[in-house]
Specification:
The structure holds 2 protein chains of 2 kinds. In chain A, helix 6 runs antiparallel to helix 10. The radius of gyration of chain A is 22 Å and the shape is globular. Chain A has one domain: Cytochrome c oxidase-like, subunit I domain (Cytochrome C Oxidase, Chain A), CATH 1.20.210.10. Chain A is mostly helical. The longest helix of chain A has 41 residues. Chain B is α+β, with helices and mostly antiparallel strands. In chain B, the strands form 2 sheets. A two-stranded antiparallel ribbon of chain B has the order 1-2. Chain B has a two-stranded antiparallel sheet with strand order 3-4. Chain B has a domain of 149 residues: Cytochrome c-like domain (Cytochrome Bc1 Complex, Chain D, domain 2), CATH 1.10.760. Chain B contains 5 helices and 4 strands, in the order αββαααββα. In chain B, helix 2 packs across helix 5. The termini of chain B are far apart. Classes of the chains: A mainly alpha, B alpha+beta.
Chain lengths: 477, 218
């Protein structure tokens, strides 16, 4: 699978064709990350301080919770993943993004709609569908825009130079195909012609699992599959492993739809199928983990921020895969389901695996597109360090709190006030972790803004030489 | 797998299969669900579930729009393993039919607060304590339930005398002399909805247990 990249995808700031829409999506996503975490922090505080801002209807707990999840998933994770995905398709295909102007406009509309949508959640309330809390009409626009962006991805892929495809491409394509299917289905069945009864919850669950496992996870894996060998300078050991891992992932992930409805009022077979798929997901997790960990260039970790984020992501990926397999079976769900425990797993998935994978791409791509390095060298170190500390506190407090909460709730003799009282300390610790985590992200915001200022000021430092040896190495060499 | 078409075909097949499994099949299985019609002890024909009354149905919208579902589930899980039934959250597990007429089904995914599937039954013959919405800690010590005082209006006591609806408040929550706190329409709708939450009706797929444990703790 060795082939030289025909042309560097984008070598100078003047090359806006790939640069502008990608930079726009990446930059916008950082703002959403901070906004989403701000909302999440307030929500987290209100879990144990219910009287905080209680007289204001807009910031009642349920609305903050829905608004923060929406801002993070649709504003940060999806947007950054999409920007990176498009860049990866252009880069691995040795071409430029198709119709960059349209991509840029679509990005603008995405952000405008999302801003209205998050405001709508705070002012009018969430839709009650946890995978899609935005007001109905706005979802329509978002569905159209995301479909357009996915189509541009396919068009970019179609323009690629001849030659074998690489794992990063497969994963991006899987994500770009899954998103429109999920978005259009949930749009039609939850918004245009709302399904009757618990069918709503089934489709909501399927959409939520799909957004996590078939949209965000493949984008994150694409980033890992590209940047770990690329920056580390070591090619993937086994392309066959990658292939198996890819297909097994797509197959099993697509059958986990009702994993969060175990024990709920849905047909039993659905829960059974989803449990089986969640456990079997361990197979692709093993393949992919081996694939990535084997090429892990430990010696190179010291010199690349991107690689350190990729390492955090790869480790979290393995852990969250094992944790999911262990806690999916019915006996575990009866105790741990509907508690804070799934919150911990989800946070590890989103902030431990997906986020750092995307940041690996962010730290690698932005300097190339902007034509200069990030100005502050200390900031990425603080970003990573505080991310690990904050995330650690968050996941451990939700995990331990949820574990105890689950066992207490399973015992009908323990009164609810007692369960609730014992949970308080864990909820408070979680707020602390979230605060550290959110603070960590201000490091990347500050560094990015500084970079932007340097780019815009005509008399900044001269642009650095681009495409030194590491960045010209092909993806799947 | 060096060819785009193979990749596409494979991915499309996988997605279509998943769509069939989690959208189309459930639609066939659940879409045909009808209320259960039976004859009660008095010989009258009853149909369960029944659509909610206007006020309670509007209250469901208030409940949705305030995001109460973030902390409250409405699904009693089966007896084996979980403590839901022993805890008194319901006499039987919740089944698909219970939510047949909910405009927005709010099963919930996190139990920071108690399950509410049968909250109306727990009220017994009492009417809903509206003060619970204004200040939950007045009914449950140290409650972390979200207070929604904005569903109430503080106004001067009218010349015709205090409103019969005015809340009886304690401690710091007491309004200044000469004014009273009364529920708005939305508070009354939400109360009607919460009181309407009850599922202890025998269904073929979810029989009620023979002996009821009247002393089950909440």
């Amino acid at each position: 699978m060795n082939r030289p990249s025909p042309t560097p995808a984008c070598a100078s700031p003047s090359c806006c064709a790939t640069g502008l829409p990608v930079l726009y999506l990446l930059g916008g996503s950082i703002l959403w990350l901070l906004a989403g975490l701000g909302l999440a922090l307030l929500a987290s505080l209100k879990q144990h301080q219910p009287w905080l801002l209680a007289s204001c209807e807009w910031v009642t707990y349920g609305r903050l919770d829905a608004a923060s999840r929406t801002a993070l998933v649709h504003g940060f994770f999806s947007q950054m993943g999409l920007g990176l995905g498009l860049w990866l398709l252009a880069r691995t295909g040795g071409t430029k993004i198709a119709a960059p102007g349209i991509a840029f406009i679509a990005g603008l509309v995405w952000n405008a709609v999302l801003t209205l949508g998050v405001a709508g959640i705070l002012v009018e309330g969430p839709s009650g569908r946890s995978s899609l809390e935005l007001p109905g009409q706005l979802v329509t626009v978002l569905t159209v825009v995301s479909t357009v962006l996915c189509l541009l991805g396919f068009a970019t892929f179609a323009k690629r130079a001849d030659g074998p495809t690489v794992p990063a491409q497969w994963f991006v394509l899987a994500a770009l195909l899954a998103l429109p299917v999920l978005a259009i289905t949930s749009q039609v069945t939850l918004s245009f012609f709302p399904a009757r009864g618990v069918l709503q919850a089934v489709i909501d669950g399927w959409n939520g699992q799909g957004l996590s496992l078939l949209w965000l996870a493949p984008l994150a894996l694409a980033s890992l599959y590209f940047f770990i060998p690329d920056i580390g300078g070591r090619p993937l050991r086994s392309p066959a492993f990658a292939k198996l891992g890819f297909w097994a992932w797509v197959f099993f992930a697509s059958w986990t739809g009702a994993a969060n409805l175990v024990g709920g009022p849905v047909p039993a077979w659905m829960a059974t199928v989803s449990i089986a798929a969640s456990v079997l997901l361990l197979i692709p997790v093993a393949f992919i983990s081996l694939n990535l960990h084997l090429v892990a260039p430990v010696s190179a970790l010291g010199r690349s921020t991107a690689l350190r984020f990729a390492a955090l992501s790869a480790i979290s990926f393995t852990v969250v895969g094992i944790l999911t397999a262990l806690t999916s079976p019915r006996c575990a769900q009866q105790v741990l389901g509907l508690t804070q425990f799934p919150v911990a797993v989800r946070e590890l998935f989103l902030f431990g695996f997906v986020g750092p994978a995307l940041f690996a791409g962010y730290y690698a791509v932005v300097p190339k597109l902007a034509g200069r390095e990030f100005p502050c060298r200390l900031s990425p170190v603080a970003h990573l360090g505080l991310t690990v500390i904050g995330l650690g506190i968050m996941v451990l407090s939700s995990g331990a709190g949820g574990w105890l909460q689950g066992w207490a709730l399973a015992d009908g003799k323990v009164g609810f006030p007692e369960v609730s009282a014992h949970l308080q300390i864990w909820l408070k610790l979680h707020t602390l972790g979230l605060a550290v985590f959110a603070f960590a992200q201000t490091a990347v915001l500050a560094n990015s803004v500084w970079l932007l200022v340097e780019c815009l000021l005509p008399f900044g430092k001269p642009a650095l030489a681009l495409f030194t040896e590491t960045s010209t190495a092909g993806a799947g060499k | 797998m060096n060819h785009g078409p193979v990749l596409f075909l494979g991915l499309v097949t996988t997605l279509v299969a998943s769509w069939t499994g989690f959208v189309a099949l459930p639609h066939r299985q659940l879409g045909a669900l009808q209320p259960d019609v039976s004859t009660n002890a008095a010989g009258a024909v009853v149909s369960y579930p029944a659509a909610r009354s206007g006020e309670a149905a509007q209250g469901a919208e208030v409940y949705r729009s305030l995001g109460c579902v973030a902390c409250h589930t409405q699904q009693v899980r089966p007896e084996n393993g979980g403590g839901d039934i022993a805890r008194g959250w319901g006499k039987r597990r919740t089944v698909a039919r219970d939510h047949l007429f909910d405009a927005t089904v709010l099963l919930g995914g996190n139990r920071l607060g108690p399950d509410l599937a049968n909250y109306g039954e727990r009220l017994g013959t009492n009417s809903f304590p509206l003060v619970r919405l204004y200040d939950p800690s007045s009914v449950a010590t140290n409650s972390t339930c979200a207070p929604v005082p904005f569903l109430f209006e503080q106004r001067p006591i009218r010349s015709s005398g205090p409103s019969p609806e005015a809340l009886v408040l304690k401690g710091t929550a007491v309004p200044p002399a000469g004014s009273e706190v009364v529920p708005t329409l939305r508070a009354r709708q939400l109360a009607a909805y919460l009181s309407s939450l009850r599922t202890s009706v025998e269904l073929p797929e979810a029989p009620l247990p023979l002996v009821e444990d009247a002393n089950a703790p909440k």
